[in-house]
Specification:
Elements lengths: L2 H15 L44 H12 L3 H14 L4 H11 L9 H16 L5 H14 L6 H18 L4 H13 L9 H16 L4 H10 L10 H10 L4 H13 L3 H20 L8 H14 L3 H19 L12 H16 L3 H5 L9 H17 L3 H18 L5 H4 L2 H17 L3 H18 L1
Length: about 475
């Protein structure tokens, strides 16, 4: 059940019976951080899905290039960048290796690159262009990404749309290139506006992906992007076959194994969700044992695991997850680069989110009412604590406190509008969250009709966007 629908479902009987429900909120994609490292000893039998992406580079680097594209498709960006940089070192004339580095810096559907990342991406594209790739197909890939990175006054949405248009043309010219189709579908998902309440972009992506999934069920990009396209209430059932398959074809990729949980959670398939998250954590641990960057994926898997345990009555297991998280996050927080760029809020996000879920699901309103933002949390992440406090103060009928929570949330969203993450404050998620807080403030102030109307509006919007 989605967040606001759950809130409405619980608020309605509470108004007449006095029962005390819990509430949940949606999750945020985990971050990845490029890392400088020596060439790792790859695990024997590593499986990341099947990729055959021909390039005109030295034949000796073709297997490594295929692995790099598989890593791109699996969103294992912390391994993708060093993989392509090793190819650059091995074959300095390989233009497409620079394309691979630039692709590894553009984390589509996760977050928007900062100025330094854009500059480095453009530098890689310039190097790729200077090497004059010998085939029209390779030059088309480089030109498409140049449309995104090239300097100028274009806003981020315009850049994403330009890249998507270029990928559409590339796929039209090379319809047998399964990776072109997969990357085109991903570009359609990335181009969705934060305030878009339709599933039109997802449907457009699925128009590309459905026939590819039938023909290429082992391509990690196809399978992965089907799951993302179907990660909403309307399309979730269409993603089940891909969810069942992804962990089988790419069991070495922690994020790949985790992704099945997005569909299982949508459909309430808690045993499958739990199994997929446990397998993802094992994949993370195995990656770390081989000097690969597996740790960064663990918080997102523990996030889904905690929720699945709570939804299926495994309270002791949920408490165990909560107890593990401080040590995991402390290890991540100590890693280089965690205090800058898009990674700056990752630790704070999970420090806040998991206790919030646990306290609300366990209906511990006193604990939830005393939650505070994690130290150093960006304003849009700090806002989660005030959402949780409002839910608790609503149940406790503490009207003044709930109203103060709403005011604090509004201040933090105003602050967010002055940061590079301003788009988060204009998103459907921000609208839903504010309506939920307002509904609980109305309930605490004995305005039941207003509370239900506001929560219903939030639930209806949540039903559209997932």
């Amino acid at each position: 059940m989605n967040v606001s629908a759950f809130g409405l479902f619980l608020l309605l009987p509470l108004l007449s019976t006095g029962q005390i429900p819990g509430q949940t909120m949606s999750s945020m994609p985990a971050g990845h951080m490029p890392m400088d490292k020596a060439s790792p000893a790859l695990p024997a039998g590593e499986k990341l899905g099947v990729v055959a992406f021909p390039v005109s580079c030295a034949p000796a680097v073709q297997p490594a290039f295929n692995r790099g594209v598989a890593l791109l498709h699996d969103f294992w960006y912390a391994e993708t960048e060093p993989q392509f940089r090793r190819i650059v070192a091995q074959d300095p004339h390989c233009a497409m290796a620079h394309w691979g580095v630039a692709m590894s810096l553009y984390h589509q559907i996760w977050q928007r690159p900062d100025a330094a990342t854009m500059a480095e991406g453009w530098k890689q594209i310039e190097q790729a262009q200077s090497l004059a790739a010998p085939t029209p197909r390779e030059r088309a890939y480089i030109a498409a990404l140049a449309d995104f990175y090239q300097p100028g006054s274009q806003a981020y949405p315009e850049r994403v749309q330009a890249y998507a248009a270029a990928m559409k043309e590339l796929y039209r010219q090379y319809p047998d290139d399964v990776d072109a189709g997969a990357f085109y579908a991903l570009s359609l998902l990335a181009a969705k506006a934060p305030d878009d309440t339709t599933v039109a972009p997802e449907e457009a992506a699925m128009q590309v992906l459905r026939p590819l999934f039938v023909k290429y069920p082992d391509n990690p990009g196809v399978v992965h992007y089907v799951i993302h396209a179907c990660d909403n209430p309307e399309l979730a059932p269409q993603g089940l076959a891909a969810a069942d398959r992804y962990g089988l074809i790419a069991p070495s990729g922690a994020h790949a194994v985790h992704m099945s949980g997005h569909i299982y959670a949508r459909l309430g398939l808690w045993p499958q969700d739990i199994d997929s998250q446990l397998a993802s954590i094992r994949a993370s641990d195995a990656a770390e044992a081989h000097r690969l960057s597996g740790l960064m994926d663990e918080p997102h898997s523990y996030d889904f695991l905690l929720y699945a345990y709570l939804q299926s009555g495994h309270d002791a297991e949920a408490r165990a997850v909560l107890a593990k998280m401080p040590a995991v996050l402390a290890r991540i927080d100590a890693m280089p680069g965690m205090g800058s760029g898009f990674m700056s809020g990752m630790v704070a996000y999970y420090q806040e989110k998991l206790p919030i879920f646990y306290d609300l699901e366990m209906q511990d309103w006193a604990a939830a009412a005393n939650l505070t933002p994690a130290a150093g949390a960006p304003p849009d992440i700090a806002a989660m604590a005030w959402w949780a406090r409002a839910v608790a103060h609503g149940h406790l009928k503490q009207a003044a406190a709930a109203q103060a929570d709403l005011a604090a949330y509004d201040r933090l969203m105003a602050s967010t509008r002055g940061t590079p993450r301003a788009y988060a404050a204009e998103s459907t998620g921000a609208r839903i969250t504010r309506d939920e807080i307002a509904a609980w403030a109305d309930y605490a102030a004995d305005r039941p009709q207003d509370a239900v109307a506001t929560m219903r509006a939030a639930a209806d919007l949540q039903d559209k966007v997932g």
